[in-house]
Write a structure and sequence with these properties.
Two copies of one chain form a homodimer. By secondary structure, the first copy, chain A, is of the alpha/beta class. Chain A is 42% helix and 17% strand. Chain A has 13 helices and 13 strands. The first copy, chain A, has a seven-stranded mixed sheet, sandwiched between helices. In chain A, strands 7-8 form a two-stranded antiparallel ribbon. Chain A is globular, with a radius of gyration of 21 Å. The N and C termini of chain A lie far apart (55 Å). The relative contact order of chain A is 0.10. At the A-B interface, helix 3, strand 7 and strand 8 of A face helix 3, strand 7 and strand 8 of B.
Chain lengths: 389, 389
């Protein structure tokens, strides 16, 4: 088989070495998953427990299972209900019970096949089942491909705490097939693009490279279709660019994780650009009004506004961001109908109880100078925040 | 305050450096716990959540809490029911809820005050609450002081799997006050001595040093009281030696953990001497007939017998072991009344499903040459095993 020129392998090199792993990005890689796995599984391993959700199971889980079975693997599928509700200790316990029933041991592996919920939940199960079994991330949404599948943050929600119970636990490898993205509904693609836009804003500070914003902007505007007519709005023209888009995002995230695996030195906090606002927007609407990506874009818009008020970002940069969002069909202001819900004082209260708040002041990652550079600020007075909320 | 000549500090140096920690061994150290903690807590930390059980709470937990409160700490106590039943996900969830209620964050700390159950459970909660909060181990039994509090193995039981859900998560420090041991009932002290005897058997192979067996044997026989008269049997004469006994055990365990934090290279398996037999004895009697230490001693006796049969251990070494056990009041054969329960074929079946079994053959750590040296064997035929069970 000829080498796929679009195949990219990124290294996430961590101390200790046993935590290191690779990210494979290749259109069509799942068509030969059995070969990919063989490169990363130690000889003598036994069973594969693949965890997916009801949505992914039918169009991808079952076929992949059959494919692995006919390649001689002993494979089991566990399907969870689709949605955030599955990211719970109760679902984890069901998976533990299933794993015990099939006799899964530390020599076997788990595979997370799905979006962020499946990835976070499976990662948590892999991290804690018999104190840790090897696992693979196979992200099937853009959001998971560029964000949650890389970095080893695994968790379930607990009571009022999103990601309240979890661990830092790195996979054996992340296997990304960008061909999957062609099957995603527009709204889900846009949810992922929210995080993609975030990477444009932190690229230079995190990796020292530049150019991702321009690349994405050019790709986004390469369409002939009138983006103003919402009925015909499409991102089909972006499809050929996704291998490169995903690669750049993973490269940035990998660089950050390499420098700060467990959020100890602070570099990892750059990934939180827009997220303090986003979490407040999500929580105040009880996670019903926005996808995470939509909330992140709103958060970045607020971060730009704040930077402008502080005099650290020229308005022209905010305009470039707004223009990119328009090309991608991403909203930068909440819908009017939500105005009564998004009460500034309440939003501020939620932001203060966020993990990133410390001593009453909230820690913000803010764009500075130009798109690509960020800084950390924890000295923003409440009045300034209330004025922009 | 003059320096306590009995104070010892052992270093557990791990990669990455952030996993490294110290073991403090000092008679009376809890009398100044507030000072000890200050050395290991980063400035700006807030709350302390101390977790203990109903037994320890009354005689130690409450007084320590008052002591820390009057030193200015914001301290909370969570008390779990005494016993193995508390080592469950359900109890962990109760602790998570309590931690959320008091607003515990990643800047705060947890303290495990108790034996192995409290230590393993608290460690698991600390490992997973918000992906990890700092925690301290304060072991209050001999077994916990020499074994479970050191090494970062944390877990709860799940369904049929003992320690089925857990993690490797190192504490900030292990704080050992050997004065506590004077309050332990004889049976609990003996439970810990089972693991102490184990360290005699692995010392040379693990650390290259020798002499622990002779030290312990001399200490054990330094009593005038007739050890044959069970009514007056006492280990009071051992008390002055416990700082040194605990130190040596922790030193051996620390050396092993430094070389093999997560049971990856195999060295850590030496700690399992006698444990494959022990787990089978414990499981077949539904954890009701033996303390873990008692089962370990029975397991070591079986391991000696097996080594003798394989011709790798002289009988004189087994006799030395038997004589030591007699001095310490440790039984080396199960009581006659249990004979019908300890069915050889059943024991063999349990040993085969143990984590340490692989491909039908069981992996044994066996004494070789003389007490202090061990080897790994996974080639023992079932017939040989059945003949000694």
């Amino acid at each position: 088989m000829p080498l796929n020129p679009l195949k990219k392998i990124l290294d996430v090199t961590l101390p200790p070495k046993s935590h290191s792993y690779k990210i494979l990005i290749e259109p069509g890689s799942l068509n030969q998953l059995e070969k990919v796995l063989q490169d990363y599984i130690t000889p003598g391993f036994g069973k594969i427990l693949m965890i997916t959700d009801t949505h992914v199971s039918s169009f991808l889980g079952q076929p992949l299972l059959a494919q692995l079975k006919s390649a001689g693997f002993e494979t089991y599928l566990y399907t969870i209900p689709e949605g955030e509700g599955s990211k719970s200790l109760a679902t984890a316990e069901n998976i533990f019970s299933f794993a015990l029933d099939i006799g899964l041991s530390r020599k076997d592996v788990m595979i997370a096949l799905g979006g962020g919920v499946v990835g976070d939940l499976t990662g948590f199960c892999a991290a804690t089942y018999f104190r840790g079994v090897p696992y693979f991330q196979i992200p099937t949404t853009l959001l998971a491909q560029v964000d949650s599948s890389v970095g080893g943050k695994v968790a379930v929600n607990f009571s009022t705490a999103k990601n309240g119970i979890g661990a830092f636990y790195q996979p054996q490898a992340v296997i990304i097939d960008t061909d999957i993205l062609a099957h995603l509904p527009l709204k889900q693609l846009q949810a992922g693009l929210g995080e993609v836009v975030k990477y444009c804003f932190i690229e230079n500070t995190c990796t020292g490279t530049t150019g991702f914003f321009n690349f994405l902007n050019t790709a986004a505007n390469a369409s002939d279709s009138p983006s103003s007519d919402n009925h015909s709005f499409s991102l089909a023209h972006l499809m050929p660019k996704f291998p490169e888009i995903v690669e750049t995002c993973c490269q940035i995230k990998a660089q950050v994780v390499i420098q700060d695996e467990k959020e100890e030195s602070g570099i990892r906090s750059f990934l939180n650009l827009g997220h303090t606002f986003a979490h407040a927007y999500e929580e105040i609407t009880q996670y019903k009004a926005f996808t995470h990506g939509e909330a992140v874009v709103l958060g970045i818009a607020k971060a730009c506004q704040l930077s402008e008020q502080l005099g650290i970002l020229p308005h022209s940069e905010t305009q470039k961001f707004q223009s990119l969002c328009q090309s991608l069909g991403l909203g930068i202001t909440p819908p009017e109908t939500l105005a009564p819900t998004l009460e500034p004082l309440q939003l501020l209260r939620l932001m203060k109880k966020d993990k990133k708040a410390s001593g009453g002041f909230i820690r913000f990652i803010l764009p500075i100078h130009q798109i690509g550079e960020v800084t950390i600020r924890d000295d923003i007075p409440d009045e300034v925040l209330l004025s922009i909320l």
